[in-house]
Specification:
- Residues about 1-25 have low confidence and may be disordered.
- The protein has about 375 residues and is α/β, with parallel strands linked by helices.
- Strands 1-2-3-5-6-7-9-10 form an 8-stranded parallel barrel, surrounded by 4 helices.
- The protein has 14 helices and 10 strands.
- It has one domain (about 30-370): TIM Barrel (Alpha-Beta Barrel).
- The protein is about 45% helix and about 15% strand.
- The protein has helices at about 1-15, 30-35, 45-50, 55-65, 75-80, 90-100, 120, 125-145, 170-175, 175-190, 205-220, 240-250, 295-315, 360-380, and strands at about 40-45, 65-70, 105, 110, 150-155, 195-200, 225-230, 230-235, 255-265, 320-325.
- The structure holds ligand G3I.
- Ligand G3I binds near residues 115 and 335.
Amino acid sequence: MKLINNSILLGFLFTLGICNSQNTKTAQASLKNNFKGDFYIGTAINASQIEEKDTKADALIRKEFNSITAENIMKSMFVHPEKDRYDFAMTDKFVAYGEKNKMFIHGHTLIWHSQLAPWMAKIKDSTEMKAFMKDHISTIVSKYKGRINSWDVVNEALNEDGTLRKSVFLNTLGENYLIDAFKLAAQADPNVDLYYNDYNICEPKKREGVIKLVENIKTHGGKIDGVGIQGHWRLDSPSLEEIEKSILAYSKLGLKVAFTELDVTVLPNPWDLQGADVNQNFEGSAEMNPYPKTLPDSIQTKLAERYASIFKLFLKHKDKICRVTFWGVHDGQSWLNDWPIKGRTNYPLLFDSNLKPKKAYNSVMRLKELQNKELVKKHALKN
Ligand code: G3I
């Protein structure tokens, strides 16, 4: 009996990857391997990464991540620059890259008020807008039918108070544009997962807005499979409590939850300065760019703790979460170096600008290793 138990325990250890040294076939430690079976670990990649121009970055992407999102090249201004012309050169490369590396491929994004081609922004009436939406969504989604695994059908349609943003889509079509967009995407590829994606949707008012939006789409026969919580977060907000409430609220709607654009800024925010004029130009201000050369160890530690607590929560709800995607591969590439103030040095990701894993990376990896050890201990005690 004891013998059988020991062999079961050994098998269990191998499954968890804890017997690495004795089993050469066991996968190497990496984000994607450590969280295998929990959720996909994704990254947003830029044009040069899609084209594999940087061999070091390429090796890192393939080692650590099993899902990709295009940071920019799939947005409407790039893919549909003129009314009668699509440009699929880069999107084809992006999809081929994901397929070659057996990755989960996410499409970002079909309907978004930002980064529109100039001709789109000029659309004034409902007939023209309906024709645009039908052509744009059907053409792109059917082109990659069966190859792209999920789509952000609509991106950032809400204001902070949960009301609908006055975009060119709302202005021409009214709120039905949301239902139409999801219906068109489902017609073009009935099997692809369709998402609504937005930022700050762990905040109570905006969360309520998402719930209403989803219910409205469903009530009117639209197919929606998931909510993408972007996750452009800070060291101290949103609270874990609000993040958890959001996971629970969205999954209660019968939807998958994905964290789609995760990063954690460590820099001061101009909007937090008492009495600051938000239009003030902070470019070049040393006060607003406190770590131009390196991040002090105390802040590295804070960042590591923040990431560990976020991932601990993700693991708690892994049955509801299908993907966690970082918005960029490494700090040097992050959009947060240029927003909301241009030319700063930010440190929001798990790899530094030399592509080296940071304390935050280790804290996330360790979390999973500790969890596995706990499981082994429990199993051993039982037997
Ligand atoms: O393509 C031009 C290039 O020709 C020009 O030389 C260069 C000069 O600045 O600009 C290039 O365009 C930039 C583009 O990224 C591609 O690199 C734009 O200026 C820049 O504004 C744009 O920023 C992107 C931003 O979306 C646009 O809104 C960021 O890289 C991208 O990370 C960011 O991603 C968004 C998500 O799509 C939606 N959620 C929020 C997230 C962060 O803003």
